[in-house]
Amino acid sequence: MSEEPAAGVALPLDAVSAEPPGADGGAEVTGVSAPVPASSPAPLPGSPLAGRIALITGGTQGIGLGVAEAFLAAGARVAVVGRDKAKMDAVVESLAPLGEIIGIQADVTVVAEAARIVSATVDHFGGLDILATVAGVFEGAPLLDATEADYDIQFDLNVKGTYFCAQAAARHLVDQGRRGKIITVGSVAGLRAFPGVSVYGATKAAVGFLTQVLAGELAPHGINVNCVVPGSIDMPTNKLLSPPGAAEASAAGTPARRNGLPVDVAAAAVYLASDSADFVHGTSLVVDGGVAAVG
């Protein structure tokens, strides 16, 4: 979708959280640790994730980077997954003052990589408690212009990547008899019909449905599966907010009269990953400034 939005229309997209396709998917793991500074961000007070181990796909930019920062600030030890090693290494270095973090280079559209990133996290930290499947990609196009490539890249990453990463994490947790949290990422575009985002919206609607089914299957094992659903999030990876005036138009069309920030979504993810959400299963927590509620 290259055209600029009309004034007063809220843009639907949360993020483009994946590195460009084709990046190397090697097995290298990098990591450093350091004390948490007093000025670190805290979406929820205290350290609700103290002692927890979290794996975040798409954790090197956009919403995933915000979630990684928030999880570290909440006390978790974190593994971020990305395709671009240079970007991943830079993120690990920049977030190291917040706590213990490693980077795992991988392409989660390759099914075998899902089990590998779980194993790498467990091997380094000694376990896994939380998975956040943030990796995703947006390729907007109206029906008459959409291509097979547009379709495949979005379903491969947004749906297949989410599904098999959740499967790999769930298998580990069940095998270990360990309780855990799986957090998927949808989009308001999966709740409302926005012209020009049919494929993306379908992938995110699929993620929401998968979340409900997986929640039912995994709840008896003590595993919570929930979905955080962003609206228009202001960050460099959101292509729809980059044209002149687009961010202002989106904010004007949002009941809250502003676009969201990665920290807004990250705060919801921290809640869903915490003990406070132990009785929350299969829900979609919408973080969109009221867009989905008012239609």
From TrEMBL:
InterPro entries assigned to the protein according to its UniProt record, in alphabetical order: NAD(P)-bd_dom_sf, Sc_DH/Rdtase_CS, SDR_fam
EC identifiers of the protein: 1.1.1.-
SUPFAM superfamilies recorded = NAD(P)-binding Rossmann-fold domains (SSF51735)
Superkingdom to which the source organism belongs: Bacteria
Under Pfam families, the record lists:
adh_short_C2
Which stretches of sequence are listed as region Disordered?
Answer: 20-40
EC top class, as a word: oxidoreductase
What Gene3D superfamilies does the annotation carry?
Answer: NAD(P)-binding Rossmann-like Domain
Task: Cite the GO molecular-function annotations of the record.
Answer: oxidoreductase activity
Q: Which family does it belong to?
A: Belongs to the short-chain dehydrogenases/reductases (SDR) family.
Which PANTHER family would you find in this protein's record? Answer: OXIDOREDUCTASE, SHORT-CHAIN DEHYDROGENASE/REDUCTASE FAMILY (AFU_ORTHOLOGUE AFUA_5G02870) (PTHR43639), SHORT-CHAIN DEHYDROGENASE_REDUCTASE FAMILY PROTEIN (PTHR43639:SF1)
Please report the name of this protein according to its UniProt entry. Answer: Dehydrogenase/reductase
- Organism equals Frankia alni (strain DSM 45986 / CECT 9034 / ACN14a)
